[in-house]
Amino acid sequence: MSRVSGLAEVTDADFAAEVIDAGLPVLVQFTADWCGPCRQLAPVLRDIAAEEGGRLKVVQLDVDRNPETTVAYGVLSTPTLMVFSGGEPVRSMVGARPKRRLLEELADVL
Fold this sequence. Notes:
Elements: E1 2-4, E2 7-10, H1 15-20, E3 26-31, H2 36-51, E4 57-62, H3 67-72, E5 80-85, E6 88-94, H4 99-106
Parallel strand pairs: 2-4, 3-4
Antiparallel strand pairs: 1-2, 3-5, 5-6
């Protein structure tokens, strides 16, 4: 697991270990280098990762470098945010959003 833009980056190879088997709910940002809204969202996700680290794990997955996971979860656009809890996707959101709104949308999984 490497770090890009201050967030942990997961890959097809370690997705199961880092996300599916995680003890906490995991917010996965499906992202791409060329995606402007993804870059807008990065500082929001960094803040949430710092503030909610004890309750929520936040990671990124590059859709271009990790096609298996991207296809497996039906991700068609970036940024897609998916929350995994107990190894299952429990919430999916598409598009950048302000921190306050994202925290409201995550309230019931935290």
